[in-house]
Automatic annotation (TrEMBL):
Negative regulator of FtsZ ring formation; modulates the frequency and position of FtsZ ring formation. Inhibits FtsZ ring formation at polar sites. Interacts either with FtsZ or with one of its binding partners to promote depolymerization. It comes from Ligilactobacillus pabuli. Residues 23-572 are cytoplasmic. This is Septation ring formation regulator EzrA. It is found in: Cell membrane. Belongs to the EzrA family. It is a single-pass membrane protein. The gene is ezrA. Residues 127-154, 317-397 form a coiled coil.
Amino acid sequence: MVVLLIAVIVIAIVAYLAILYFQRSYSEAITVEKNKVEKMANESLEDQLAKISQLNLSGESLTEFETLDKGYHFLKNRELPELSELLNDLTDAVHHYQFMRVSREIKLVQQKTAGAEQHASEIKEKLDLIQTSTKQHENILKELQEKYQSLRTVLLTKNFSFGPGIDALEEKSAEIEEDFGKYTKYSESGDFVSSEEPLNKLRSDMDAIEDAVEQIPPIFKNLHNVFPEQLEELTAGIKQMKDNHCIFTTDLSAKVAEITKECQENEHNLADLNLAAASELDEQIVTEIDHVYAEIESEYAAATILGNKFQELGQFLNHAQQQQKELKIELDRLGQNYTFNNQEEERAAQLDQQLNEIQQHYTQLEQTKEKKQDLVCSTAVAQLDDDKERLTNAEKEQQAINAGISGLWKEEKDALDAVENFDTEIHRMKREVEKLNLPGLPEDYLEYFFKVSDEIEALDAELNKMKIDMAEITRSLINTQSDLDVLNNKTIEIKDSSMLAERLLQYSNRYRNRYPEVEQAYQQSLIAFEKEFAYVEALDNISQAIDTVEPGAFKRISEQFEAEKDSLNTLV
């Protein structure tokens, strides 16, 4: 029973708390909406509506204002009172605990309140826009009128600066007068919506005439003052150059005539107020005139230096031709005794051809000058410069060929001296070997000796021919010198090994009777020495045997032998 009572009490408390929660929550929500409605009711637009109604609006502007006025009064007199009534009903429903109804209807009221707020905001924004637009139109009209008066003043006081464009500018000015009339008609009647189109056209026409007033004078100045003087000066310059027989790579007279037509065309562009085309053609004419000036100046500069360059090349050509003549004489003389290996004669023939071509250019230019024929001076100067460079290269080639052949006689003399030295050397080796009184010489040594001897004789025979090939002889000299060095080493080896072998054979006599191995080595070395002429082998056999019984003996004897050789060489 107690438990049941406690449960009833708890349920009652929870129900009471829930009622308090919903009452408070919904009351706060209703209060928020009431505050919004009250705020909208207190924000009056009556003064603003009254001011705008005095603007004498008409047309679309008046229609829009009337719509806004009706919307505002509908909001104030209908929407807001209805919302207030609904909120009051909901307040009573909360007090009577009709929470389900309140929950259902409060959302609808909130939506309507939000809609009313948006409606009020739109009305306020559009009314502000009407007032702002009215002020803007007044300012724009004033600004455009001031700008137009300024442009009219320029047109009247400086009409001479616009040339053929003045008539079109006057027509444009008349159009602007009409634009002002249309715009003023709408703006004064208060139809600012309908005045937007003529305002845009007025602005566009005003910008166009403003651009024309700014762009036409410099273009017309060029057409009226600058270009005619320049074209007259160019025409005189072209005539003067032609009178002096200097012509151009292009027909500059035709180009000047073409530019003159372009100037006439640009006058039509100005008359039609075709400013984009006029500006573009103006720049094109400036560029074309500059190009004509540049070509005349280039030809004039070339004509000024042509004479000096012509004279300079003539002297250079004479010098190169004289050198070529001397080179060919030298080639012919040396060619009787020497074979050329670097295509000297072919290279000289190519130089002949080049010099002939340069001579042809020079002669042709000389005849043109003598006959006072027309000449493109810049082309002639370029040809002279090119021929000068070719002469410079030709002279270097002449020097290279001459350097290659001028040393042939010295190379021949050096070769003769070398062969003589070779012959002296091989005879020296022969005498030194003969002095040894050896029983004989190794077969390979003899073969190599006669090979080198034959090479020396062959070189001598080549050098004694009527026409010699120094390149081939030089290669043979190098090979023979190498072979002679090898033969010299072989000769030294025979001399040293035979003399040392004899000395060791004598030294071995003191050990032969006591040491059979020394006796055996002695006999083997003797056979190698006297029968086989293998002096190195004989030395190896006896030296090893002696070192066996007397360590270090071979080293001591060979060092003594070398010392004696050095002493003998010093005396010599």
